[in-house]
Design a protein that fits this description.
Shape: globular
Helix content: 25-40%
Strand content: 15-25%
Distance between the termini: 28 Å
Strand order of the largest sheet: 3-2-1-4-5-6-7
Number of helices: 12
CATH architecture of the largest domain: 3-Layer(aba) Sandwich
Number of strands: 13
Structural class: alpha/beta
Length: 327
């Protein structure tokens, strides 16, 4: 264990019900720490999440493996996950530890030094508007992995890349593949099986069996090389959208939750990606029609420019290592 105030704690949520989005961006922060020689402890919920990080070259431990992590006195704390961090925020507030709360509107966020919204779309709420000096949001704050930033774009030999994250609990992968089959889509389709989706691989392959060209790939080791070769993509709201924007790949966006609608409206207005709607509000016929129209629209658009997201990790580590805790 490191000495007092000489390292960071990066705490990320994970697991089958959560997926890997929080792990992906926290890992990007860890990579920037390594590049700078900044010490850190990366703490996750479960062994599968820790193993996923370790196999990708990032040291990590579970809360069970580090039961005393709450007793440490780090230089700063990063909390990434949609949960109530009440105990963690209160504990480190007592030590005046600078704390970054990531994309989380919990009631007790006053205890955090900063709230970061690492997303293309950010719609401020009342707290954000009342505390603008403690909010960091938008394109400049999106952390991308070194693998993503260093992956060159290759030949665009994948007509459609399908990736619904690490777990896809709503089974949007199988559902959209069925819709594509009903549309008699003839291009090359590559579908990603996330780390928590291996038990569904046979069903996913079966859902795409009527497609002319369909390949199912394992996404455990990362999907950067596939994103860099895609012409179009189909995904949900999340980290994958920002990686695709980096590679200049437009995506059809199918959201999981009704409260995702403001983000979908923003994408409809901005045009970076094209929203299909909220999955629960569309029956299979309506979803197939939306996909058909969306694919035709994206295919007819001029080539999408790549977005410059290269400095997000650097800005976040700057915030963790130079900014004091709030008064």
């Amino acid at each position: 264990m490191m000495g007092a105030r000489d390292h960071l704690i990066l705490r990320a949520a994970g697991g089958p019900s959560v997926g890997v989005g929080h792990l992906v961006r926290t890992r990007a922060i860890a990579q920037e720490c390594i590049r700078r020689g900044v010490g850190f402890d990366l703490i996750v919920d479960d062994g599968a999440s820790a193993d996923w990080l370790r196999t990708r070259g990032t040291k990590a431990a579970t809360v069970d493996e580090r039961p005393g992590w709450l007793c440490q006195r780090p230089r700063a704390l990063w909390l990434d996950g949609f949960r109530d961090w009440q105990i963690e925020l209160a504990r480190f507030d007592r030590d005046a530890t600078s704390t970054i709360l990531v994309e989380n509107r919990v009631a007790n966020r006053d205890l955090a030094s900063f709230t970061v919204y690492p997303a293309l779309h950010h719609e401020p709420d009342a707290w954000d508007r009342a505390n603008p000096e403690r909010v960091r949001a938008g394109v400049d704050w999106i952390p991308l992995s070194r693998e993503t930033m260093e992956m060159p774009c290759g030949e665009r030999d994948i007509d459609l890349l399908i990736s619904f994250g690490g777990s896809d609990p709503s089974h949007l992968t199988e559902r959209t593949l069925g819709c594509l089959s009903s549309l008699a889509f003839e291009g090359r389709v590559v579908t990603v099986v996330g780390p928590h989706m291996h038990g569904r691989r046979n069903q996913i392959e079966d859902a795409g069996r009527h497609l002319a060209q369909h390949e199912v790939i394992d996404g455990d080791a990362g999907i950067e090389r596939w994103q860099a070769r895609a012409s179009l993509a189909l995904t949900a709201l999340g980290t994958t959208l920002y990686e695709l924007a980096w590679f200049g790949v437009p995506a059809l966006v199918l959201a999981n939750y009704e409260d995702d609608q403001p983000a979908l409206d923003w994408y409809a207005a901005q045009g970076c990606h094209l929203p299909l709607g909220v999955a629960g509000q569309l029956d299979d016929g309506a979803l197939a029609s939306a996909m058909h129209a969306g694919l035709r629209e994206l295919d007819s658009r001029p080539k999408t420019a790549r977005l410059d997201l290269a400095d997000g990790s650097r800005r976040i580590v700057d915030l963790l290592t130079t900014e004091p805790a709030h008064a």
